[in-house]
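Posting this for the archive.
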Amino acid sequence: MDEKGLPGRLPERDRPWVMRTYAGHSSAAATNALFRRNLAKGQTGLSVAFDLPTQTGYDPDHELAAGEVGRVGVPVAHLGDMRALFDGIPLAEMNTSMTINAPAMWLLALYATVGVEQGGERARLAGTTQNDIIKEYLSRGTHIFPPAASLRLTADVIAYTLREMPRWNPVNICSYHLQEAGATPVQEVAFALATAVAVLDTVRDAGQVPAERMGDVVQRISFFVNAGVRFVEEIAKMRAFGALWDEITRDRYGVADPRQRRFRYGVQVNSLGLTEAQPENNVQRIVLEMLGVTLSRDARARAVQLPAWNEALGLPRPWDQQWSLRMQQVLAYESDLLEYPDLFAGSHVMTALVDEIVAGARVELEKVLEMGGVVTAVETGYLKSALVASLAQRRRRMESGADVVVGVNRFTETEPSPLTAAGAQAIEQVDPAVEAQAASAVRAWRAGRDAGAVDAALARLRADAATATNLMPATLECVRAGVTTGEWAGALRQVFGEYRAPTGLAGAGTAGADGGLAAVRARVAATARELGSGRLRLLVGKPGLDGHSNGAEQIAVRARDAGFEVIYQGIRLTAGQIVAAAVEEDIDLVGLSVLSGSHLAAVPAVLDGLRAAGRGDLPVVVGGIIPAGDAAQLRDAGVARVFTPKDFALTGIVDELVTVIREANGLT
């Protein structure tokens, strides 16, 4: 029999999803070269990673940008950088995803301007701006403005693209980062849909979009999800997402066309689930996680980007990204997956699991809506506390061995890996000179502009921001005048102010996490008595622009449960602020968390500040994604301990913190 005639086959093979790798580092020119190589290897879309100064609205020469420029993405400070980023890449023929949120309007304006400069029509530009600010308050931490002002910017982008860029997805509701922050499948679905409701309500109520066009708004909203290693559960989660999205858009917004109600999503599989220990195991994790969002035809991702096997070690190299791209290509082109209809239609197991997630998510969503919606749930700390508590429970299961992580808490015996053998350069290195070059370049850009045009454009932006005027036209004027990323964000900071989100620690606890916690609690109390203080005091600090606070929060919660008094002021602190808090709060130990790769700049700045303040005796420990060579440098600089992702047992880490305090104070 001709295999194409086998029963159950589709008449035509499905088109593969858009294949991307998340890429960007060092400079616009270096990233452009990386994009070109990836496209030549068969990648079918681009996914741009911006560095933290760009994501948080700062120029490369700003104080807070120190050590962060070009580390986790590409710096884009003005129109010239965007031109260099896409030089020789025809944007009218590309599908580009940009992971940018608080300044999404600004980066979209830069992108659209370059597309038009290349000779393309703005209406032909296709791609996505992530533009989901709510999850920034809960997980990634790259927010700038308060929630209401941020949602206004999102609504303005949606209204503008509906008119001028109809192929563009103006917002990408992200459950990805919620899962990394601790969300269960039920919470991930519910909290992401609550965000989508807030966005759609804001658009509907702003009056910029006619009621009859809400279906057009809905069909341009996409989602960005996380796929963990429990791939059967992930398949069910995605089917539940689709069912609830169809229900909400039909019943709440009156969208009659089922094609407009289709749940459209892209995915990156779980980066924070990758391990530093036995990192070769990450390859099979990535494959399983990819299956969770591709096996089910009725809930298949429209775009997939995979992390690299070594992301828990540092910045992946081009070869590592190629390996991840090839995983997608083998599944799409060598396997027969795309030749069949949905494999799970009629499965009573899958149906029951989907129904369970739908029911739980509906209850949680109603709870958020009843308290006034997702903005209220952010401002009261409800969402953040729920995620911190869920992540604490997940950590407890891993520490107890109830959740097995191969190579970490079970099957830890291992042969030396040739991938990370001595002398092998397992990650990409960012030249420290990149930051100085970027700072010099942005100063030269400012010097070469028409200052009057810049001042006029920024004045218009501030004036429009004080009204209900759509801010895209003023933003486009800023682009053409040569305004920088920091100047655009700075003007809006003057009007909207800045926002510090709740830390979520108040309602979280893990007492009884393991049998060793009582012993650590006794050591904490005994050490406090020997020092003549009421309680040991730990300052948890997040220096620089790194907003990934999950690890810092979990250490804070466990240390508090062990009897420490914990001072945690949230993310995005200068070295001076951390030093001032350490002195004012009479701290016994400073713990710094840095996951962005800026540790060699951020940590010495705090050490120097403590010495200048007369507290050079105060012990400092550091946690983060820190290569062994960098860890040695930090210890030589005076850091007492360096913790990395392989140090997963939180109670053991807290016990070591007690040891550090005792050593620093000469206690046996």
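The chain is about 50% helix and 10% strand. Residues 46 and 335 are 24 Å apart (CA to CA).
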